[in-house]
Design goal:
By secondary structure, the chain is α+β, with helices and mostly antiparallel strands. About 25% of the residues lie in helices and about 25% in strands. It has eight helices and 17 strands. It is globular, with a radius of gyration of 19 Å. The protein binds pyridine-2,4-dicarboxylic acid and zinc ion (ZN). Zinc ion (ZN) binds near residues 211 and 213.
Length: about 300
């Protein structure tokens, strides 16, 4: 793989400042021999820096973990640090402490906690029967997933996200209502601040390249989304099946990956009490190498989601 040297830093900065689309920059880097995770992370950092998104760009530089250089060479880090008004400050997570959390109607196991970024892996959030019921309710209603267009806010189908999905309205029936209540209790965030549950299905080779779940504050397309309940605060991804091979949830900035187990979940929080956004929560769904993958996501907002 090529090295992300000063020449690549210049190329990234130039193209980001010219307003090139993230996809085409990532494609160019992949054609030049970079792997897609490295390319995507470098492009996101360059775009954040170019948009003057000081909070995001700055904290990338400030919190640099040892393997950040894998995705953005020393030059990239140095140029980001220059823009630094203040690094992301880790305040306490709303999620309860302890190894077992009573979440509405169920005891949920805590399997792993990471402080920076704030990531928690849970076991047994849903029973196998509940996972299978969500899959069967969704199987015949799936539509190709979209992502938010940064300029218009419209939902676009793009190559970066090769999954299909379906949304359930919050509390749309007793079963969904119970899951909404349990998840809100586990995330310790008001149920009315939650978006509806989303089910996603990936076939073999399906992936979701690294991205942020929050709406980048400086992108015009974010306004239409934050008008409904403000910024996203935290994500819970529940694994509805055991993926035979691949499909891990990856956090490339910190070299972490979570291999899902049916009923388990990964939580991550990216908006703190100061309304800073944590760049270390860049994450993706690694390509599924064998079989298929089903997940359920819950996104929590700052205020009631209407
Ligand atoms: O499928 C995943 O593991 C995944 C990874 C990252 C899903 C999402 N993000 C998402 O739906 O935002
Ligand atoms: Zn995501």
């Amino acid at each position: 793989m090529p090295v992300l040297d000063a020449a690549w830093d210049d190329w990234l900065a130039t193209n980001a400042n010219r307003g090139c689309a993230a996809d085409s920059m990532v494609d160019s880097m992949v054609r030049a021999g970079f792997d897609s995770v490295t390319a995507s992370a470098a492009v996101h950092r360059a775009l954040a820096a170019a948009s003057g998104n000081a909070v995001v760009a700055a904290a990338v530089g400030a919190a640099a973990p040892s393997d950040v250089t894998q995705a953005g060479g020393a030059g990239t880090q140095a140029s980001l640090i220059k823009r630094l008004p203040g690094a992301y400050q880790y305040d306490s997570s709303p999620v309860a402490s302890g190894n077992l959390i009573r979440a509405f109607d169920r005891d949920v196991k805590v399997l792993m906690r990471c402080e920076r970024p704030q990531v928690i892996v849970f076991g047994d959030v849903l029973s196998p029967d509940e996972c299978n019921e969500m899959i069967e309710r969704s199987r015949h209603r799936l539509k190709r997933s979209t992502t938010v267009n940064p300029d218009t806010g419209q939902e676009d189908v793009i190559r970066n996200r090769t999954s299909e999905g379906i949304w359930f309205q919050r509390g749309e029936d007793a079963f969904i209502e119970r899951l909404d209540q349990r998840i809100a209790s586990l995330m310790n965030w008001p149920v009315e601040n939650g978006e509806g549950l989303q089910i996603l299905h990936y076939n073999t080779t399906g992936e979701y390249r690294p991205h942020f779940d929050f709406f980048p504050p400086d992108q015009p397309g974010s306004v239409v989304h934050t008008a409904r309940g403000g910024q996203r605060v935290a994500t819970l991804i529940v694994y509805l099946n055991d993926v035979p091979d691949g499909g891990e949830t990856i956090f490339p900035e910190v070299g972490m990956s979570v291999a899902g187990k049916q009923g388990g979940a990964v939580y991550f929080r990216y908006l703190n009490g100061l309304r800073q956004l944590d760049p270390l929560t860049l994450h993706g769904g690694a390509p599924v190498k064998g079989g298929d993958k089903w997940i359920m996501t819950k996104w929590m907002r700052e205020r009631a989601y209407v």
